[in-house]
Amino acid sequence: MATTVGEIIRTAMRRIGVLSGGEPLSSSDGPDALRVFVQMVDGWSAEPLLNPLIVDEATGLETMQILSAALPAGGLTEVVDLPAGYERALVFNLCIELADEWGKEVSRAVAINAGDSKRLIKRNNSRTPILKVDRGITDRNYDYYDIAAGV
Q: Could you give the C-alpha distances from 124 to 50, 79, 81, 128, in angstroms and in order?
């Protein structure tokens, strides 16, 4: 979904009560909030399951896109195109990061949504590994073992 970093930050700041509806970021709060956002996204880059998998349609190969590389280095007004579920996760988790910086408490609902949205991304990005056996060491014509069938 396409949005701007500024919209993500404004939404998070509104949810924790720093901004009211429609109120713009101030020139002093904007850079500080952007710094917190960048630090959070950088931290997420260290968690492999939070980084989206991109499937090359031509080859079918999956590659992991580092989330911080997908976001613009520019600023609040640049448009970002996020995979499904990422905007929600960024907003709710940014609420938690910003609340401490601005001396606010997050509601229980925000805390639950932050955890749930992050878990959903991790679940969607996880891939179950498939154990394959080299055909050279088996007498079968296939390279897998079906535990249910016993072959």
A: 9, 24, 18, 11
Would you call 136 helix, strand, or coil by DSSP? helix
Q: Is residue 51 a contact partner of residue 64, using CB atoms and an 8 Å limit?
A: yes
Q: What length is written for the chain?
A: 151
Q: Which residues contact 16 (CB under 8 A, 6 or more apart)?
A: 95, 98, 99, 102, 104, 106, 110
> CA–CA separation, 62 vs 52, rounded Å?
10
Instruction: Report pTM.
Output: 0.75
Phi, psi (degrees; rounded to nearest 5) at 53: -90, 130
**The two structure tokens encoding residue 54:** 């991109």
Q: Is residue 5 within 8 Å of residue 91, measured between CB atoms?
A: no
Mean pLDDT, range 68-76, rounded to an integer = 65
- Model confidence at 137, pLDDT cuts 50, 70, 90, reads low
